[in-house]
Structure formats: structure tokens, C-alpha cells
Amino acid sequence: MTFFLETNIYQFFGRFHAMLVHLPIGFIILAVVFEMLALKKKIDLNRAISYAFLAGALSGVLSIVLGLMLASDGGYNEATLNIHKWTGITMTMIAFLLFFMKRKQKTRLWTQKSYPVLVIILVALLFVAGHNGGNLTHGSDYLLEHAPNPIRALAGMEPIRERVTDLDEALVYEDVIHPIFESKCNVCHNNDKAKGDLLLTDAESILKGGKNGNVIVAGNANESELYRRVTLNPTHKEFMPTEGRTPLTNEETMLVQWWIDEGAHFDKKVVELNLTDRIKAYLRDVGIGLKKTFIENLDLKKVDGKVIEAIQAEGFKIKPVSGNSALLEVTYSSYNKEPITTNKLEMLLKAKTNIVWLDFSGVPLNEDVVPKLGQLENLVALRMSNSNLTDAGIKAFESLKHLEYLNLYGNPISDASLESLQKLKGLQKLYLWKTNVSDEGMKSLKAYLEGATIVSGL
Ligand code: HEC
């Protein structure tokens, strides 16, 4: 009994809509392909075609039922949802009609003219329903999200603004906070799918708040619903993001808190706000304020698209650090169930000279995998908090001569790692919080790494 009380059975079944809806699509396409085949080769496929329409119609009914359940979740753009719903329903009715017509086609003349028209309408509706369904699931700029600026301009979309990573120039909202919301929140809080009636896409919408009003109290993070939601216990049902999506990192959470506490400004530069060393460190964590001289001087060829795809197929997220750059940023989500094996890593290493940022935070790494990371000769930033690194593993990092940022938070490493860390002369920021490195060890390391900030605890 409690099972039914605690779970929303509607939502449970509703979620299958996105999967099942491909069945009617497939059957309808099959019917149309058969129809063309029959025309061209002059063969009789009437029976097969009629059954394909019937299967399309029946699976269409199931998709509609599941779709209505999913829509009861709420938070979808009403206009888009209506178009999607009614095109879907109309298509299903047409498919039934075509089934009956096809069965009787030989005997009834009147069907001959209306039949092809209905088929064409059905195919057209298929595109409309599919496109709107895609927008409901992914947001309306999904199709052109990665399109070049001229094409975006034609579609009336804002040009993609290249993210500023220079500490002196970066804007606190555009370059720090907005990218966090985009990557972690906006699959559910966008124009087409505003869960909780909340959009986190632009200043105006954020200030407008959600169904329960304001989500941000400028100057007071602790009073802000948005901050409360991301700092709840992840098992709490109000925790954001929901559904086991990748939560904010510790650093991202701190930046959101800082942004709100500093007045939740949308147009100020980072340097116009109160910047402590700790905040500067967090900013580096999201890429703001790294010394870019080394990266800027790197002149590399782009990695072949096929290699990138093969790397993605292994579960890595890999993309240019900005716009059209040949330099790459790689992450592996801690939500991936599969560990990083040596085979996976070998694939990644095919792009090794181009990889400058690597984020394996929260992903436990095996002893046989870590040494290979030493081959990433151009790595500038490495995030490996809570990755189960040992002193033996750290030795492999000695070869990462250009490393400026290294996050080793929460790894069971000790003073035995100091000798290797001392060799990383380019380090500007090193996190050793929650490791077993002793206070004396930290002090001696500071003496070696001039100019670096070592974050060792609260
Ligand atoms: C997988 C979908 C999903 C993601 C991702 C997601 N949310 Fe939500 N959010 C929801 C749903 C569903 C609701 C409405 C139910 C509720 O209030 O808990 C909601 C409600 C909210 C509310 C309350 C709005 C109100 O006025 O009641 C806030 C604030 C919020 N989300 C913030 C965020 C933030 C910040 C992120 C990113 C860190 C995020 N959400 C990511 C699904 C999501």
C-alpha cells in the first residue's frame, strides 16, 4: 500500500511516453515506405500496409494515454503541449482511418483520392508532433543549440556569447552563475518545461520566481529558496536538481551563495564584488581566472571528429574549452555507473595533447588507471576530488608540468605525496582539504610552491 502512497504512479508510467512514442512513428514510416515500394515495384502490399497503420494507431493510443499521464506532471509550456497533444491525437485517428480505407481500397472508389492526401497530412503531422515533443523534452532551442551564430540569427535566436574567463573582465551572472544554471538546472527550468513554474534562463525570469514566489532574496542566500533547495540533503524530496541529475559541486554551491549574498547582481563584473581568496579559488574551479598564457600559446590541430565521437561513446563528456578552440575540456560524471577502465582511458588518450581541463571529481579511480594520466602533457586544470587517489597515484602527476589548478579534496593521500607535488612549479591553486597531509607538510609545500594558494581546510 505505502508503495502507491509514496510514489506517483501516474508519473511513473508517464515517463515511458518518450520511449513508447517511437513505436507509432516506426509503424507509420513503415506503412509509407511499403506504400512507395508497392507503387514502384507494382506489388500488392495492401495487407501489410493496412496492418502497419493499425499497429501505428494502436501504439498511438497507448502513447496518448502515457503522454497525458506525463503531462499531468505539470510545468510544460501550454501552447507547445497543446500542439503536441492534438497533432498526436489527430495522427492516431488518421492512422485508424487509413487502416479501414486500406482494407477496403479495392471496393470503394472514393477512397482513392482522399487516401494519398491523408497519407501526406499524416507524415506532415508526424514532423510537427515530433518537433514539438522534442521541444517539450529538451527545450525549444534544442535543435539549433549548437548551430553557428549566423543560423541562430536567422532563427531569431541570441548569438552564443563566448564565455569570458579573464578574472578582471568576467561578469558575475553571465560568466559564472548562468553557466551553472544552464548545465545543472535548465533542462527542467526552461521556456518549454518550467517545472515549479520557474525559469532559470534569464535575469527577469529568475527575479520573477516560481509558483511559490521569489526564489532569491538579494543579499541573503540563507533566506533564498533557490539556495535552500540546492543545499538540502540530496535524498530530500525538495532537493534540486531532482531525479538523480548531477548536483552542484561544492564550489558551484559556494559561488551561488556568494552571488546571492553579494546582492544577486546580473550586470556587475566579478571584480566589483567582494572577492576573498577562497572565492577566487572557487572561481578558478569554474574556469575564471586561470593564467591563460600557456594555453594561449598552444597551437594545436583540432582532434578528428570521429575520435571525439569514439571518446564520447566511452561515456566521457568532451568539448572545446570555448567556441571554436582546438583545446578540449573533459568530464566524466560521477553518476556514470561504469568505472573508468584502462580501455576507456586509452580511448581518451587519443586526444591527449589537446586536453587541457579534466574533471573526474567523485569518480573512484583504479590504481592501474591513474598512472596513465601522466600522459596528459598539456593539462592545466585537474579536478579529482574524492577519486580514491593514493600516494602511489600522485607520483604519476609529476609529469604534468603545466598544471595550474589541482583539486585533490577528499583523497586519502599523505605526506608521502609532497615530494611529487613540490615538482608542480606552475601550480596556482591546490586543494588538499580533507586529505591526510599534515599541517607541517602543508607548510613545507607552501615554501616550495611560491605564489600558489593551498586550500587546506576551513
Ligand atoms: C530533473 C528536473 C529538474 C532539474 C534538473 C532541476 N529542477 Fe528545480 N524543480 C523541478 C520540479 C519538478 C520542481 C517542482 C516541484 C518542487 O517544487 O519540488 C522544481 C522546483 C524548483 C524550485 C521551487 C520553485 C517554486 O517556486 O516552488 C526551485 C527554487 C528550483 N526548482 C531550483 C532548481 C535549481 C537551482 C536547479 C539546478 C541546480 C534545479 N531546480 C534543477 C525539477 C528540476
Characterize this entry briefly:
The chain has 458 residues and is mainly alpha-helical.
Overall pLDDT metric:
86
Order of helices and strands: HHHHHHHHHHHHHHHEEHEEHEHEHE
End-to-end distance, in Å? 47 Å
Strand count, sense and closure of the main sheet? 7 strands, mixed
CATH level 4 superfamily of the largest domain: Ribonuclease Inhibitor
CATH A-level architecture of the largest domain: Alpha-Beta Horseshoe
The spatial strand order of the largest sheet comes to 1-2-3-4-5-6-7
CATH C-level class of the largest domain is Alpha Beta
Structural class: mainly alpha
Tell me the CATH topology of the largest domain: Leucine-rich repeat, LRR (right-handed beta-alpha superhelix)
Q: Helix amount, in percent?
A: 40-55%
Give a written overview of the molecule.
Helix 16 (342-348) links the parallel strand 2 and strand 3 (355-359). The protein is built from 19 helices and 7 strands. Strands 1-2-3-4-5-6-7 form a 7-stranded mixed β-sheet, sandwiched between helices. It has 458 residues and is mostly helical. The longest helix has 28 residues, at 111-138. It has 3 domains: 2-138; 172-285, no CATH class; 293-455, Alpha-Beta Horseshoe (Leucine-rich repeat, LRR (right-handed beta-alpha superhelix)), CATH 3.80.10. The model is unreliable at 1-6 (pLDDT under 50). The protein has helices spanning 2-6, 9-14, 17-20, 22-41, 46-71, 78-104, 111-138, 149-154, 172-184, 203-208, 225-231, 250-261, 277-285, 293-297, 305-313, 342-348, 391-394, 418-422, 439-448; strands spanning 317-320, 328-331, 355-359, 381-383, 405-407, 429-431, 453-455. The two termini are 47 Å apart. The structure holds heme C. Heme C binds at residues 184-185, 187-189, 195-196, 198, 209-212, 215, 225-226, 229-230, 238, 240-243, 245, 248.
